[in-house]
Amino acid sequence: MTALALAGGLAVGAGVLGGSAAPPALPPGADDSGARVETVPATSADRVRDLAADDRPSPEEEAAAPSPEWLDSTSAATGVPRRALEAYATAQLLLMVDRPECRVSWPTLAGIGEIESHHGTYTGGELGPDGRTTEDIIGIPLDGTNNTAAIRDTDGGDYDGDTEWDRAVGPMQFIPKTWTKWGADADGDGEADPHDMDDAAYTAARYLCAEGRDLTDDDGWWDAVLTYNESEEYANDVLDVAARLVADAG
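Above: the chain sequence. Below: its structure as tokens.
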């Protein structure tokens, strides 16, 4: 997990993009070879998202679910825990319905999840069957030290347990004020919970896709990830992890 302010472009210390070594190619788009998710049908009752009634897809447009066989084989090949991979892949499938022009794919989400929390295992816990971390992952106080921005408490400690300063929370490390704006219920349990990987991965995908970004475009991908965490080193780390996952997944 990084020690910088997360999910909102609040980290300091980043320079402009550059360097002598060319970075890996961008992760493939959601519908491209290398990121395509094998699916099984899902009914609209399986996932009820926090969309206005008029914005919800019709049943025939409802996102499919990752197939158990694809999850088993891809988790084994990449080392991404199966329950985390399910959340990343489901977020990809949901965004293919909600914002198909964005083309965000699971390797980018998994790259972020690995760096932020080792896929929800950073504090020694794991993801439970419901997708929630068995041990809450809470970042350091965002008090202006340790290369963080100073962010006074915005949530009364509801998410992070700190009533003086905000802290990044959950497996995708959202700061509370960002979660308040963007947090979404992906699994239909009636709550947008930053400690639930289903909700966190879907919210991260929505956040990356904001402002009409296309994540298969250089400007779109870099802008999205640098908005998530304004650090060139961080973005390159995400890209490295995503490239490794695509290669391992075959």
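The two ends are 27 Å apart (CA to CA).
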